[in-house]
Amino acid sequence: MPPYIQDNKAWGSGQWPVASTEQQRFQILALSGGGFRGLYTAKILADIEDQIGAPIASRFDLIAGTSIGGILALAVALEIPAQKMVDLFEKHGEEIFKPRFNLFGTLRSAYSPEPLKRLLQDESLFGHQLLGKCKHPVIVPAINYSRGEPQLFKTPHHPDFIRDHKFALVDVALATSAAPMYFPRHTFNNNQYVDGGLYANAPGQLAIHEAQQFMGQPIESIYVLAIGTMSSKFTANPGRNRAGGTFDWGGLHPAKTPERLFGVSISVLETLTHKVLGHQLAGRYTHIDDALTDEVSKAVALDKADVSAREALLGAGSERSKAFLGSAESKPFLLHQPNPPFFYHGPNAAKENM
């Protein structure tokens, strides 16, 4: 188990301290889903990397991410600079979320997956690399709609994980982010996949199970840093029709009904996860996020990528990262030195297993 070590240098000295006393620790980075709101997450990651002068993955034993958080988790596990992901979303967000004709959602999803796929296939990002190329352990949830089951894509950090490392990173990214009504189901390996946010929009709970069940970690050693996407709360309007039909849920456009149900689902499940983990880890769970105010919520949404959305997300992310980096609880997370990752299969497999 890698030690968390630090010396007695004062935190206010202007430099990050270096290690000297040991404390066992297993750290998880958990990144939530939220569509274009992931720009907020990416900004926080980029600011942390700028502060520590290293890839954020170098401070964590396991990375987990769902939907846009899954795309970011894969990038983090590859040690792609988070600033590169910020630049990607800033420059191409409106291209990714460019509406297409869909006859009020009855013919097809609101957005095509092709722009995102093209961007991720750039050789400076995922290119045609496989999941096995990740330099750090990572798990990414999706739903296997062909089987009606949850599915976790994983690096080969356990001897039984013999297949996922052969999957293309772009396929895993598109599978975890195929939000119903927003993007079509993603098909590969002769299966259809849907957004993992429907059951694990905040993947910290899954990551804890992974650490205990497959990585041999006692719960007492586990610490989680979870980063959200400016959480939205979907609540009832007491003045609205409450009869339970499509007009109640979606208003004048029936296609809005599944979109709102999707939003309610991920919002409530995420809140539940944070409450449970706060109790389960008892002081070892740190959650970075911002609640949307009434005015900001008008500019920010899962599929809003215009200049107002970018300003709101980047500004909030910058302020939240500043608060986190200036807090005492950030220091143990960002000083942690994990053991070198150990993979059993694929291109990064340990030599003794080859």
Automatic annotation (TrEMBL):
Where does the PNPLA domain lie? 29-208
- Please indicate the residue ranges that the annotation assigns to the motif DGA/G: 195-197
- List, alphabetically, the PROSITE patterns matched: PNPLA
Identify the keywords attached in UniProt to this record, alphabetized: Hydrolase, Lipid degradation, Lipid metabolism
- What is annotated as the active site? S67 (nucleophile), D195 (proton acceptor)
The sequence motif named GXSXG is recorded at 65-69
Q: Which residues form a coiled coil?
A: none
Q: Where is this motif: GXGXXG?
A: 33-38
Where does the signal sequence lie? Answer: none
Which protein are we looking at? Patatin-like phospholipase
Q: Which organism is it from?
A: Phytopseudomonas argentinensis
